[in-house]
Amino acid sequence: MMLPTHAIVGLAIAAPLVSVAPEFAPAALAGAIVGSVLPDLDMYAGHRRTLHYPTGYALLAVPALAAAALVPASGSFAVAALLVGAGAHCRMDRYGGGLELRPWEATSDRAVYDHVRGRWREPKRVVRYDGAPEDLALAVLLGLPLLVVLEAPFRWLVLAAIAVGGVYALLRRRLAALAPVAFGYVPPAFRHYVPDRYRS
């Protein structure tokens, strides 16, 4: 799924704290947004493997949530929300398309690397590919209530995520055609950083 959808899901996970524990909500929302985008920082260094830990984040989230419940503080809520957001991101990627430039062709059997089992997990393709209409629909469906519940700056993040997601969804298939051309101009010294999928 696309990064804007991950970001909105992270905010949606932490949003109930606005009502339940408003004093900790800003820290939790900030932690959730960081955690929900953190795994994709491996985009050019072993994407969906280097920073994607579907089991690891979930296991770490359990004691972090317990710590936030036992010792409520902005820091403990931020850490717990970060880990839950990162875990949700990794799980969501499993329900999307595979790790390929054109995931709508369904040629890859790699969704997310499972470090515990030591193998790639197959994509379920509930959301066919990042930027698919159903991906954007999920972002909008979760984002609209957040616009009512959240205040600035988080409300602006939701609006930005929906806008960026909409543009990305419109251009997604064209970007797949453009990527190999654009990455062909990368200087030779940096070409080893270009993922294989962008060279085809």
Automatic annotation (TrEMBL):
**Keyword tags:** Membrane, Transmembrane, Transmembrane helix
Spans through the membrane: 57-84, 127-148, 154-171
What this protein is called in its record is: Membrane-bound metal-dependent hydrolase
Source species, please? Halopiger xanaduensis (strain DSM 18323 / JCM 14033 / SH-6)
